[in-house]
Design brief:
Layout (H helix, E strand, L loop, with lengths): L1 H15 L3 H23 L4 H21 L2
Helix pairs in contact: 2-3
């Protein structure tokens, strides 16, 4: 019984935690998206578009801050 519980806990830990390569891929993708949003913010846009871009930028920066460093 103890072995079964240990195996279940290990499986949960493996699938619950992203692998290092997947985390690095996510970080690289988020960094690229941040650059894209920053470029879009330099162009002219409506107030609503600007609000969406700023919200997206905050979200991406939060993901990078909490998941990459």
């Amino acid at each position: 019984m103890h072995r079964i519980c240990t195996a279940i806990v290990l499986l949960i830990a493996v699938y619950a935690c992203p692998s290092a390569s997947r985390a690095a891929d996510n970080c690289a993708r988020w960094e690229q998206q941040i650059q894209t949003v920053q470029q879009q913010m330099r162009r002219s846009h409506t107030a609503a578009q600007g609000n969406r871009l700023r919200a997206r930028l905050r979200d991406l920066q939060g993901r990078v801050a909490h998941g990459c460093r």
